[in-house]
Amino acid sequence: MLTPSTRLRLQGILKRIGSDQPVSLQERIYVQKFADRDQGVAAWLGQARRRQLQQLPEDSIARDGIDHLLEQMNLGPADPDASFRPGEDDIEGWFGGAPGWVRRS
Q1: Is the pTM above the cut of 0.70?
Q2: For residue 52, what pLDDT is reported?
Q3: SS3 for 79?
Q4: Are 51 and 84 within 8 A, CB to CB?
Q5: Helix/strand/coil (H, E, C) string of 4-30?
Q6: CA 49, 89, 103 angle in degrees (round to 5)?
Q7: What is the DSSP code string of 38-89?
Q8: How far apart are CA 69 and CA 13, in angstroms?
Q9: Dist CA 89 CA 87 (whole Å)
């Protein structure tokens, strides 16, 4: 359970992450520490990273529709490198770092 002051501090840092403003390493470590322990904070962090990648202001009119729904449901990768891009990626390279039991011969 987060205290109100901790929650407000986390949300302030996450708001800056989402709007692509500077965030110190100590603040990122602080957020990640809570995200590792609390699923709610991890969801907030994922939403902030997606907002940062989309580069849309939090109060933007363009934030309605399916993109906004997916963001609110916390769906989709927060990391652009986390998904396979068929036109750009090689499937063999994608699974190259997988354990032996995953790879087929």
Answers
A1: no
A2: 83
A3: coil
A4: no
A5: HHHHHHHHHHHHHHHCCCCCCHHHHHH
A6: 100
A7: -HHHHHHHHHHHHHHHHT--TT-GGG-SHHHHHHHTT-S-SSGGGS--TTT-
A8: 23
A9: 6
